[in-house]
Design brief:
The structure is a homodimer of 255-residue chains. The first copy, chain A, has 255 residues and is of the alpha/beta class. The first copy, chain A, has one domain: Alpha-Beta Barrel (TIM Barrel), CATH 3.20.20. Chain A is 48% helix and 15% strand. Chain A has an eight-stranded parallel β-barrel with strand order 1-2-3-4-5-6-7-8, surrounded by four helices. In chain A, helix 3 links the parallel strand 3 and strand 4. In chain A, helix 1 packs across helix 2, helix 6 packs across helix 7 and helix 8 runs parallel beside helix 10. The longest helix of chain A is centred in the last third of the chain and has 41 residues. Chain A is globular, with a radius of gyration of 19 Å. Chain A starts with 9 loop residues before the first strand and ends with a helix. At the A-B interface, helix 2, strand 3, helix 3, helix 5 and helix 6 of A face helix 2, strand 3, helix 3, helix 5 and helix 6 of B.
Chain lengths: 255, 255
């Protein structure tokens, strides 16, 4: 489990179309949250001016444009925004990822499979892989090309960590703060499960913005998160200790 | 073959990152060209302000953002830009297309398969379809959901017209004005072939912008295009005539 400031583990998704409203949310929450996501909706309204303002608040910014075009255009687009955001999302395909200039890759998050797609959607589109297999494959394009990390649903975190270790950022969108009900997103988990499985960051928008007491909610989630992360870290240390103990035991035997 | 103003058949791709440069190009060419494409590169620089300026020049605008996100976000993004562009591109997937509000669909162009992807890229991504099969499948999501049309490579025009008729706009990007050489785009054709096969519009950028005499080039391409379109229309009429003649012949036989 990676060491990450607790106030950067929740990425607050500013999924609104009113720039002033978004600014108010940042002002309200920035004492506890230091990482914000600007998606297509707000970006198309506020443009780079809003992103610049956001960076001036001394927070991290994920610009979630989900670029998906020919390499020349993706790179031209990245050139326009790379200095204003800490992370920028690009749909992860080998042909696109390997063409991204090396000096930008540390800011790129590879989008694997949109959380709204389930197995049927992939089959329908001619894909013979399960969502999980496809996520692993596309994550590889991002990770092997030394991008910052990947965006994938909570259902794939365990497999991604198992396969690729901890040397990349694992961002989980579409997070529910409670158990998911029917929604437009097929592959979602709760934040507790996500952190337990090894997520670095979760993206949360509406559940906070529509909450009656958002600051209290953020505080509670951060408390739970802190507890889960500590517990998982302790487990990792115990595993390490057991492994090294086992190692000592074996070496004694063979001495 | 659809009836389209000749000065709207070439869509000039403003694939530059300098707003003033783009404006100069529009001023220079708008006597002959009445349809412009704004892609990610220029949009990220000039934003909606540039798009508004462009609309004020009394030309058609294709906003080529290639949106590809969960339906809620795609629709929120469309809401921000729908009043400023005549056409907006969205990656064509059933789950996304069918959720687009009905009052926006007449502006939506469904992107099928990026011209940079070849058969190997699809196989690599778990897709068992050929590019052509996948283009036809994704075009269907756009056409059956009553979108304005589709963006597909020149290699698939004939099949698309055969399968879906003429009741949708067929836009062909990555057009070369000469025979294609090695490039970053795997599936490209010349404009002559594209119009012969039934394209409504071709998207051309660099070949015009980098030309020594762009206005002369545009004039020549438009002349050739006019000739090809006329010839194809005459062929269609002759086919119709032959068919109706054959029909008459048969009806006489059965009288």
């Amino acid at each position: 489990m990676n060491n990450i400031d607790f106030n950067k583990r929740i990425i607050l998704a500013l999924d609104v179309d009113d720039v002033e409203f978004a600014k108010n949310w940042v002002q309200l929450t920035k004492s506890r949250i230091k990482f914000y996501k600007v998606g297509l909706q707000l970006f198309l309204k506020g443009g780079l001016n809003f992103v610049k303002w956001l960076k001036d608040q001394d927070v991290d910014v994920m610009l979630d444009l989900k670029l998906f075009d020919i390499p020349r255009t993706v790179n031209a687009a990245l050139e326009q925004v790379k200095d204003y955001a800490d992370y920028i999302t690009v749909h992860s395909r080998m042909k696109i990822m390997k063409e991204i200039p090396e000096n930008v890759r540390h800011k790129i998050l590879g989008v694997t499979v949109l959380t709204c797609f389930d197995n049927d959607d992939l089959t329908y589109d001619g894909c013979s892989f399960s969502p999980k297999t496809l996520v692993l494959k596309r994550a590889k394009y991002a990770i092997y090309n030394k991008c910052a990390g990947v965006v994938a649903s909570g259902l794939e975190i365990t497999d991604l960590r198992e396969r690729f270790g901890n040397e990349f950022k694992m961002i989980v969108p579409s997070i529910k703060l409670e158990k998911p009900r029917d929604d437009d997103q097929a592959r979602v988990v709760t934040y507790k499960q996500a952190f337990k499985d090894g997520a670095d960051h979760i993206v949360v928008g509406r559940p906070i913005i529509q909450s009656d007491d958002p600051m209290d909610l953020i505080e509670r989630v951060q408390e739970n998160m802190r507890y889960i992360v500590k517990r998982e870290k302790r487990k990792e240390e115990e595993d390490d200790w057991e492994l090294s103990d086992l190692g000592r035991h074996y070496s004694q035997e063979y001495e």
